């Protein structure tokens, strides 16, 4: 492998930022040498160079908490790599999802309390707020009022917001679509929070499906798989059933018409015969 375009330091190392490919969480910072990069690319399991033990090591080789390589990037200066990975279990040796759970305060001191604010993005922050309201309800909180109403009240809002998204999309106004889609995402998170399902579990399911062929078979003569969502397939199947039913009805009507015409011709001949 050719790594001549990378800028390793005097010890032959390059910093490697590891990011959860599903939600963007920065999991850890490690160091790689050429051998670690080569091993990572060959095995698809992330390897580093341990500066304290002075040896190559695979993340999770003892704990089982491996990092599965999904993609690898180099920065504009060629002196840092970004590893997109799928973590198997917590990445930090403390048992936390990621190593960055301590906030640095304005005076430069480290906050003594753990925080998950650096984990994921806005969806994770919203989910955490929902969980906080669930544990400690507030009388003036919209989230608390919905949760107090139970599952039916929460689910009713999801159905309502889904309808609003459809109407906004039908209207075609960009701002309204964005606004209503945000409402739907928020209330869907509320359902997840009510059922104790974390966004990570949804990411994992999406990751499981990613890149897999869909329900539509490959087109003959091409190497590309064309995916179809289950809903699309069901709609197509329903449309095909209706078309077949319409064709059958059309054939039946045509057959009845032909039979009537034949009967009329025979009847006319009989009548003409009797008249004669």
Report on the structure:
The chain has 276 residues and is of the alpha+beta class. Among the domains are: 13-88, Phosphoribosyl-AMP cyclohydrolase (Ubiquitin-like (UB roll), Roll), CATH 3.10.20; 122-209, Helix Hairpins, CATH 1.10.287. Helix content is 47%, strand content 16%. The protein contains seven helices and eight strands. It has a four-stranded mixed β-sheet, covered by helices on one side. Strands 3-4 form a two-stranded antiparallel sheet. A two-stranded antiparallel sheet has the order 7-8. A hairpin with a 5-residue loop joins strand 7 and strand 8 (110-114). Helix 2 crosses helix 5 and helix 4 (150-171) packs antiparallel against helix 5. The protein is extended and about 80 Å long.
Quick structural gist:
Helix content is about 45%, strand content about 15%. It has about 280 residues and is an alpha+beta fold.
Largest sheet: 4 strands, mixed
Query: What Rg, in angstroms, do the CA atoms define?
Result: 31 Å
Give the overall average pLDDT: 84
The helix fraction, in percent, is 40-55%
**CATH homologous superfamily (4th level) name of the domain at 122-209:** MazG-like
The helix/strand class is: alpha+beta
Write down the overall geometry: extended
User: What is the CATH T-level topology of the domain at 122-209?
Assistant: Helix Hairpins
Order of adjacent strands in the largest pleated sheet: 2-1-6-5
């Amino acid at each position: 492998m050719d790594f001549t375009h990378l800028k390793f330091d005097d010890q032959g190392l390059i910093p490697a930022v590891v990011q959860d490919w599903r939600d963007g969480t920065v999991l850890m910072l490690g160091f790689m040498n050429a051998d670690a990069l080569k091993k990572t690319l060959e095995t698809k399991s992330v390897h580093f160079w341990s500066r304290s033990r002075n040896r190559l090591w695979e993340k999770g080789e003892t704990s089982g908490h491996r990092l599965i390589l999904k993609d690898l990037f180099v920065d504009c200066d060629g002196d840092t790599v970004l590893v997109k990975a799928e973590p198997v279990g917590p990445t930090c040796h403390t048992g936390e999802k990621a190593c960055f759970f301590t906030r640095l305060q304005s005076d430069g001191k480290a906050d003594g309390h753990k925080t998950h604010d650096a984990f994921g993005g806005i969806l994770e922050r919203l989910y955490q707020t929902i969980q906080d309201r669930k544990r400690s309800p507030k009388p003036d909180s919209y989230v608390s009022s919905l949760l107090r109403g139970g599952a039916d009240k929460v689910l009713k809002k999801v159905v309502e917001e889904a309808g609003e998204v459809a109407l906004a999309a039908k209207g075609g106004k960009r701002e309204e679509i964005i606004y209503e889609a945000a409402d739907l995402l928020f209330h869907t998170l509320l359902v997840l929070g009510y059922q104790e399902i974390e966004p990570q579990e949804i990411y994992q399911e999406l990751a499981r499906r990613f890149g897999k062929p869909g329900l539509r078979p490959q087109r003959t003569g091409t190497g590309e798989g064309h995916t179809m969502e289950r809903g699309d397939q069901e709609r197509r199947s329903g449309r095909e059933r209706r078309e077949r039913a319409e064709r059958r009805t059309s054939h039946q009507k045509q057959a009845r018409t032909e039979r009537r015409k034949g009967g009329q011709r025979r009847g006319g001949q009989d009548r003409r015969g009797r008249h004669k």
